Amino acid sequence: MRVFYVLLCFVALINIAYGVDRCKRATRQCEVIDSTTGEKSLVDYDNCRQFCCGSAIHDRDVNIECCGNATVGRPYNKSIEICCTWQVEYQVHNKSNGTSWAEKQFCCGTDVFSYSEAKSCCHSHLQKPEAFMHHSEMCCAGVKQYAGNTAYSSCCGTASYDRRNSSCPCNDGVVAFNIPSDVAYCCYSNDRTVMGPYNTLTEGCCNGVGYNEATEFCCGNLIGNSATQMCCSGTIIDIQSVDIGHQCCVLADGGFAVYDPTTQLCCGGTVQDFPSDEFFCCDNEVFSKSLGDACCNGRPYNTSGSVCCAGVIAIGNGCCNGVPYYTDNMVCCNGAFSVGPIAGDSCCNGIGYFANEFTCCSNVLEERNLTISSCCVDQPFDSSIETCCGSRVYANPQIQINHTHFETSHHTRCCGDWSNDETLVPYDYNTQTCCNGVIVDLGGLTANTAQCCGTQLMNPETQICCGGIPIDIASTSEECCSGQVIDTSSDICCSGTVSAKPAENAVCCDCKSSFIITGTVGINSSNEICCNNEVPASLDGNLPNQTICCNGIVQPKPTETYTCCGNLTMDSTSHVCCGGIPQSVNGVAVEQALCCSGVLQTFNGTGFTCCGVTAMDPTLEICCNDQPRSLNGIEPAEAFCCGDGCINANLYWCCEGRQYRKGRPGVNVSGRTCNI
Predict the structure, then answer these.
(1) Are 640 and 676 in contact (CB under 8 A)?
(2) How far is CA 144 from CA 64, 160, 584, 633, in A?
């Protein structure tokens, strides 16, 4: 028996020792901010039972976590709330009661969204993410942009545009409005540092700037006015109105001469009397156009049957690395004639092919007759009757026109789980829509009026989405609360809890005075106030604007200047909350009162600061161990506490509470503990 008691005592001692050690290891510090004074202090807490969040200590609970961090944040109940953070920002939201994937809530920055709302998240590493409506808005380089109808929208940098009538030819974030992509091109400067879009039908390109070819011209990388100017050898010169239609001739001496091209010709640096419609200049010599219409190494030739290749006139209409050939039955690919069974008019990986008979995708040719040739990764397809979803080609859906007639859709999008492109399939967006990965027929609704509810479609004018299910409503006063429809004229929904509406102007008692949600109810704001952990309390005959809730206790508020100080109220024009209790400033301006460690100090200058429980002037004193010490003429930036006073840190060391002159012969501080 004695051995048993000895063992029992030994085990108890071990448990005590272990418990002490565990508590030591669990003890941590939290920088706590006093809610009344704003002062910071390090406070020990038991990490096994408590946690630090938002500069305050809170008790641990199974479902309670910190949203944010120890410095900036607040506790939340993860069973009924969701925490969304972005950088140093945070926000707590009530969880929905939806159970389907479509109703699941996701964070987007500090906001929440669900796919049942036809929303997605626009992510960006540079700015705060935003939720956007993917039927009417675009996410362009992390920026949400209104697009109207995303079926016709594309991104250009951070801007969206309608690709039916606009384009982004330079891919620099500048939209070319009213210039369709088939006639849009990017105009680059010679050094590629300037660029801009232009319309190839009506405009030309001049060193990175588009110009109107009908009224302007490009000369020496500058744009001139055709009505008042002329280009002469890269130089813009002014002309008279009588010279309009004339041309410029650069003379042999470097000067300029204006001539009439209908009766004269510029050749060899001189103006000669030969009409340009009958003669032309070839290497400084005048030839009759009966000999040809082009020049090759000083000899005229006719371009209708000949070509100039490497300075030699030959039969053909094109050159391939200096060799003449006919482009209608041969093709030059990479400087050599294409070899193979076909000639062609285009090249694919060095092989010639006819673009109207073959398609080249990823340098691979495939023989197909396509109305609108396109590539889906490395697979060619006809985009007029097929759609590329993910990396697969699908036939466009058939649309029923009447009881017996079907037509192939030419207006398609892809629908499915975008995280798995194998699930994506095409649908006709004029007669169908995509609700959270499920294709749904619009029926009698239109794409602009219909809304998704989970994986179903609803009419927002006659239905509401409740719990992911469309429900018919009889009046506009009906709404959804935690999966059930309520009539807001008689009931109120507070944080997912339905209760009878106590008055017409009832509001929710949802003060969030505690992170532990005990249930929220509706209150009559004319005679009740939300206080004491979201519990309605009577105003006791006072008006709503004459009461205030202070730490769960209803207190009178005679004027708007009254605020809380702990459990009490005070007039903020004559009192300061110090040490958790209201203290009178005794006629001194509130701005000149300081709360120093719970002790109120008055009659201070506006620049005074606290030193322990005392106020001091930092221009005349320094705080050493919570005691003000005179600077004795030392500049504040150069002062340092040492022993019972302060020293000039530029002139002295402080070693073990004593000062030593710097640079003084014979002063040796080696082996001592010096602060500076």
Answers:
(1) yes
(2) 34, 9, 53, 60
What is the dihedral angle through the alpha carbons of 76, 78, 82, 88, rounded to the nearest 10 degrees?
50
Residue 8 is given by DSSP the state H
- Confidence class for position 297, pLDDT limits 50, 70, 90: very high
pLDDT of residue 676: 52
Strands 478-481 and 652-655: unpaired
Q: What are phi and psi of 82, to 5 degrees?
A: -130, 135
Nearest CA-CA partner of 442 in 460, 426, 457, 464: 457
Mean pLDDT over the full length of the chain:
82
Exposed/middle/buried for residue 178 (C-beta within 10 Å: 0-12, 13-18, 19+): exposed
Question: Has residue 522 got a pLDDT over 70?
Answer: no
Cα–Cα distance for residue pair 152/159, rounded to 1 Å? 14
CB atoms within 10 A of CB 192: 8
Q: What is the pLDDT of residues 416-461, one digit of tens each?
A: 988 888 899 999 988 899 998 999 998 888 877 888 988 999 888 8
Please tell me whether the overall predicted TM-score, pTM, comes out greater than 0.70 for this model: no
What phi, psi does 115 have (nearest 5°)? -70, -20
Q: Which of 23-37, 344-358, 607-621 has the lowest mean pLDDT?
A: 23-37
H/E segment holding residue 25: helix 2-26
Longest dimension (CA), the chain: 140
Average pLDDT over residues 381-398: 89
- Which DSSP string corresponds to 96-157? P---STTT--EEETTEEE-GGGTEEEE--SSS--EEEETTTEEEETTEEEE-S-GGGEEEET
Length of the chain: 676
Q: Is residue 212 pLDDT above 80, yes or no?
A: yes
Sign of the CA dihedral with 625 first, then 626, 627, and 631 last = positive
610 token code pair = 């606290």
Question: Residues 563, 572: contact at Cβ < 8 Å?
Answer: yes
d(CA 527, CA 546): 11
**Alpha-carbon gap, residue 649 to 661, rounded angstroms:** 10
